[in-house]
Specification:
mainly beta; Porin; 21 strands; elongated
Length: about 350
């Protein structure tokens, strides 16, 4: 009895049979599995490194060339150059190249790539990891370019010309802001007469806000101000609003078209001015045939409702070449046409510009 009592107090009251051991093992296995599920992130991602390591965790973001991952109870960053591929059960917000942001789940792809869908109806697409600009960027940053150009000549006349140009962009998930501007000023002094005259006094400023409404469709409001002293134009102001469509919006090719209503007001040096309402038609295209080269072309057309023979046309085309890191050189041609200019001015003006710049 003492032995039986001590057995009951100091040992298991159940018989040490094989069935009991198996039951205990199954119970322990279920507990461990439940604990593993509880400790696993609610939404998991899988990251495969080039050295063969495999990490399961939650993908938080990708900025400045680093993927931020939550795993093993902490957060750590991985250089994108070390990534072979990755996947995520949770939709992530991507920005690839200069394209717009979109949301997609991610499947693992071949070496150096992932598979995404830009919209639920689109086909799967393989994307190079190095082409991803951001993932889940919580605070979109301003991006842009600054470019300088100038001209110095000697001989019969001495010419000094200089200019500054810039672009500035910021993009949220459904909204975009874009600004662009340029200004050129030049003076020339004749060696024979000693007379100094203005050779260039030209500037324009353009701003545009766009809001995505469905898939590739968006509404926008934009305005342009142009000044050209040699054409006796104090300023031309053209605010407009309309609707647009992005035909292509990828890292290698972008193409959009806009149509809307614009009001144009012109003021001249030699006489008052004129104004009119009319449609605005605009398009823009950027194509990257190779990694460091970007070709571009834009056009804006403003005819008058009352007289389609009275219209304004601004277009430009050029090539942008990245030299080293964020430095670049750009060669561009511009064409500005006014069907009814000032009396002493020509209808058309051509400008050819080359200069170095910096991206930020």
């Amino acid at each position: 009895m003492l032995h039986s009592s001590s057995s009951t107090l100091g040992h298991s009251p159940y018989p040490a049979s094989g069935h009991g051991i198996r039951t205990l093992r199954r119970t322990s296995g279920r507990i461990l599995a439940a604990l593993a599920l509880l400790s696993r992130p609610a939404v998991a991602g899988d990251v495969i490194l080039r050295n063969g390591d495999h990490i399961t965790g939650k993908i938080l973001s990708l900025t400045d060339g680093e993927l931020l991952l939550k795993a093993y109870g902490g957060e750590f960053a991985i250089d994108v150059k070390k990534l072979k591929t990755f996947s995520s059960d949770e939709p992530l917000v991507f920005r690839i190249g200069k394209g717009s942001r979109f949301e997609s789940r991610v499947s693992a792809g071949p070496d150096g790539k992932i598979e995404i869908r830009r919209s639920p109806a689109s086909a799967p697409e393989l994307v190079a990891i190095v082409d991803i600009v951001t993932i889940n960027d919580p605070s979109p940053a301003w991006t842009g370019e600054v470019m300088l150009n100038g001209k110095i000549t000697g001989g019969d006349s001495r010419t000094r010309e200089g200019g500054l140009e810039f672009t500035l962009d910021k993009e949220w998930r459904r909204d975009r802001l874009h600004f662009a501007g340029e200004y050129m000023y030049g003076r020339e002094r004749s060696q024979e007469t000693g007379v100094t005259s203005t050779t260039d006094d030209f500037g324009n400023l353009y701003g545009k806000y766009g809001h995505d409404i469905h898939d590739r469709w968006y509404v926008d409001a934009n305005a342009k101000v142009l000044h050209d002293l040699l054409a006796e134009l104090k300023y031309r102001l053209s605010p407009a609003t309309g609707v647009g469509y992005r035909w292509f919006d990828g890292p290698e090719l972008e193409l959009f078209t806009d149509i809307g209503i614009a009001y144009t007001d012109e003021r001249f040096q030699t006489f008052g001015g004129r104004s009119f309402w009319g449609p605005q038609v605009e398009y823009g295209i950027e194509w990257k045939p190779v990694k460091r080269w970007r070709l571009f072309n834009t056009l804006e057309y403003y005819p008058s409702f009352s007289d389609f023979g009275n219209y304004l046309l601004d277009t430009q085309a050029g090539v942008h070449v990245t030299l080293w890191r964020r430095s670049f050189v750009e060669v561009r041609g511009e064409y500005h046409y006014d069907a009814e200019p000032a009396a002493s001015a020509k209808n058309a003006e051509y400008r050819f510009i080359i200069g170095p710049g910096l991206e930020f």
